[in-house]
Structure formats: structure tokens, C-alpha cells
Amino acid sequence: MSKIKTIKTLGFPWETQDPFLFCAYHRDEYPQGNSKMGVSVDQLGGRPIGQDFVVKDGWRMYHGTDIPGFPYHPHRGFETITINKEGVVDHSDSLGAAGRFMEGDVQWMTAGKGIQHSEMFPLLNEDKGNPLEIFQIWLNLPKASKMVEPHFKMLWREAIPELSHQDAAGKMTTVQIIAGRLGEVSAPSPTPDSWAANPAHAVGVYTVKMEAGAVWTLPKTNDAANRSMFFYKGESIQVEGQTIPSGRLIEARAGEDISIQNGNKEAYLLILEGKPIEEPVVQHGPYVMNTQEEIREAMREYGKTQFGGWPWKEREVVHAKDKGRFALHADGELETK
């Protein structure tokens, strides 16, 4: 029986398997910013401002008007895991929490019973470009946890372990372990109500960088888990001896060791794995529940309460340019880096 189940071309967003809902990968070569951390008016010409998802000049504004990003919007019934590989992300939410995270940091947010948040990408550099590279992964919640209190946690880059593997030829593979465990190396704890909080659910989130010619084996995990490998940057790799070009999703058996040999250029992968929740999934935009009636109830409640309202003056909240990496939690706790 082949260890590879399927190979697919990556689309947008990336297709995932239960317990994950999808993954959005954003790579934007933003230009130098103006004094307000935004894009100059002459660079915005011809864009459908507020709905700019088509790459033009190497970047997109998304729902932003002056500053790229996603102004406040609601979520209910699932979690977001936002992995920052390059650039700046400013977070604000309806609980009054806020933060700024940068290269190597990860934000893990449980939407639970409902939250509004914004994710903006301020262009801090006025004298050079502002490249941004992030993943946003949607991880489902089981019915028992869909209405928990919302919560967010920062996994700062200093606390996220990396596994470095040197093969027989001296070639290196580096794995950032965001969730789960590889060998003796474990990730930081996720949010407390996450499906990933129980080790029996075998949730793993890893980013992988392989030198040209490097060889590495992804170790087996729980046989009941789903495993998705996103080869998003590079030339080609061999997975279990099968040559696969970049821009591919490889669904592999989680209960088997998976050998990977890189080709002639650096290769980058995102790996998601975990036991499926195996419950009905009904999604309507930013709401993910188990039934259509629960979706309707989410919409009614948001219409009445706005999930607590928006405590900020702006729709597109960005923090001061000289602000470093920080997280201000709803209970007043302040973390700075």
C-alpha cells in the first residue's frame, strides 16, 4: 500500500483535511510605506479597494483601504493559527486585546462563542520594501467546544522549538514545531480549549526548510490522523521515491514514516496532521458550526450583539510605528518582546 494517498495542485485557499478547515497562504512584496504605514495613493491606482485579492505589482490590499489587511470581522466556532514568516501583523479584537507579531511568531486564537478581530499589515519601512509572508490555518472545534469563551495566545519565536537534522551528506533540514511533537521535541501548549490541547488528538503543525539535496524523514504519528504536506516553494522533492514539483499538496499516511529528499533548490513545506473530529461541518463565511440552525443563530446573535461590539476608534487598527512585538490581553496582562 502506497504511503502517498493523493497529490493535488495547490489552489487558494489550500485544501485541508479534518480537523483543519483550510489554510490561506499570503506572500506579498509590499512596497515602502508612507508616513502613516500605508500605501501611497499613486500606488493604489486601478485596485478594487476593499476587495483586492488579485496580485498586482506583487501584492494585494485585501480588505484594507490605506493599509493592507483585514479590518474587523467576526468569527465563531473554530480557531485561527496565524504563522508569521516575514513582515508585521497587528491584531486588535472585540475583547479589547491587541498585539503586534513579526517574523517567526505565531498567534493562536480560539473564536469559540464569538469574537471580532482585525489583522492589519502595517508597512513600517519607509526606505525599503515591506515583504509579508504568513499562513492562516483554520482549525475546527468540536461541538462540545464551539461556544467556549474566546481566547488568544502568542507563541513567540523564542519559545517555538526548532528541530535541526543533518543528514549523512551534511545537508540540513530545519523544522519549526508549532503544534505537536517530533521525537523528543514538543511545541508550546496551544490555547486551553483547542482540539490540539489533548495530545491524544495528535495535532501537528510544522514548517520545514530543506537545503538543496537534503534528506529527512517525517516520523509516523497516530494512524488515525490525517496528514497533509504542502510543498509551496522550491523546485522538486522526492517523497517516498516519487518526484513531485512545487505547488503541490501531498496527502500521506500518518501512521508511516515518510522519506523526503530535496532537489537542487531550497524547499519549503507546511505540514498539518491530526485526528479528525468527525462531526458535521456547516460553514457560512466566518461561522463554522454543526447545523444550519446554529449558523442562523450565530448570524442573529451577531446582528444583535456584534459579539461585544468594536471598542476601537478605527476599523483598520494599527499600532504605533515604534511599537515592538507585544500582546495586550483582555485581562490587562501585557507581554513585550
What's this, in brief?
By secondary structure, the chain is mostly beta strands. 4% of the residues lie in helices and 42% in strands. It has a 7-stranded antiparallel sheet, with no helix packed on it.
Describe this structure in words.
InterPro entries: Pirin, Pirin_C_dom, Pirin_N_dom, RmlC-like_jellyroll, RmlC_Cupin_sf. The strands form 6 sheets. A 7-stranded antiparallel beta sheet has the order 1-20-17-22-15-12-11, with no helix packed on it. The chain has one helix spanning 292-305; strands at residues 4-9, 20-30, 69-75, 78-86, 89-93, 98-101, 106-110, 115-120, 130-140, 151-155, 162-166, 172-179, 181-182, 185-186, 204-210, 215-218, 226-233, 236-239, 242-245, 248-252, 258-262, 267-274, 282-284, 287-289, 326-328, 334-336. The protein contains 1 helix and 26 strands. It is mainly β and 337 residues long. The termini are far apart. The protein folds into 2 domains: 1-10 and 160-276, Jelly Rolls (Sandwich), CATH 2.60.120; 20-159 and 283-307, Sandwich (Jelly Rolls), CATH 2.60.120. 4% of the residues lie in helices and 42% in strands.
List the helices and strands and how they pair.
Blueprint: E1 4-9, E2 20-30, E3 69-75, E4 78-86, E5 89-93, E6 98-101, E7 106-110, E8 115-120, E9 130-140, E10 151-155, E11 162-166, E12 172-179, E13 181-182, E14 185-186, E15 204-210, E16 215-218, E17 226-233, E18 236-239, E19 242-245, E20 248-252, E21 258-262, E22 267-274, E23 282-284, E24 287-289, H1 292-305, E25 326-328, E26 334-336
Antiparallel strand pairs: 1-20, 2-9, 3-8, 4-7, 4-9, 5-6, 5-8, 6-25, 7-10, 11-12, 12-15, 13-14, 15-22, 16-21, 17-20, 17-22, 18-19, 18-21, 23-24, 25-26
